[in-house]
Task: structure prediction
Amino acid sequence: MVLTVSGFIFMDISVVIPLLNEEESLPELIQWIGAVMKANQFSYEIILVDDGSTDQSWNVIQEFHQKEEAVKGIRFRRNYGKSAALFKGFEKAEGEVVITMDADLQDSPDEIPELYKMIMEDGYDLVSGWKKERHDPFFKNQTSKIYNAFTRWLSGIKLNDFNCGLKAYRKKVIKSIEVYGEMHRYIPVLAKSSGFKKIGEKVVKHQARKYGTTKFGLVRFLNGPLDLMSISFVGRFGKRPMHFFGAVGFFMIFLGLVILAYLTIGKFAWNQVGMTDRPLFYFGILLLIVGTQLFATGFLAELVSRNSSTRNNYLVEEEI
Result:
């Protein structure tokens, strides 16, 4: 049951599920989630985001919506990716706790009550699932370990499985971040950069895929680290780009001037000849040119930042 008071909706849980061509698994998944919710007397909604499916997934969603008002659907005109699907789902979510999971039945809805408890009772802002025992090919398991280790090192967040689709969020977390591109893998990093630092982890059951095939290819192992570096850079220097470009540019200019000063003194004080034939001379010139370009980039980035409509968008926890 959803409680509405003075126009405000009070709902325990929103389950956001991005999907692509999962017509076979959807009926079992929707019924499973419903059974768990009713057994625990949660008020809930299931938001299914069809990311441009070419099978009968949307027809399945429509059929379940006619039977159960809690089942809601969003359909994209074409495939935009998991991040876009999560963003639209987060936009519509009304639950105090938002659970995300994949539609392929590899994530178990039986984990929902404990995830809800960790958010509402234990005070976590975000809880990420950890598929400690995976039913994936050897190569995928090993590359995932490398990817997770790199992400832990760069982000400082001690999670074992950043890419697990089964996660729980406090409502204000998903309303405070913007997921785009392929940033869905790094929502904990986005949350941390927005000031939500109580991030936990729960070991969850990983089930073997029953239907269809995986929708993710090897290209994610190239795009992933690039996205992570982008998030880390924007999080630290998004509102003060000159602190990065200016510092690096100043160092390179200074080093270039030192090198050229040394060569100039050597020519006049020690009668060194062939200054322009030495590689060190061209290295010094290169440092000056690149340093100046970085300095100019810093100024231009500051102009863009100062004129941005979001330059003073800061997250306020509470006011009295």
The mean pLDDT is 85. Strands lie at 3-5, 8-19, 44-50, 71-75, 95-100, 126-130, 167-170, 199-203.
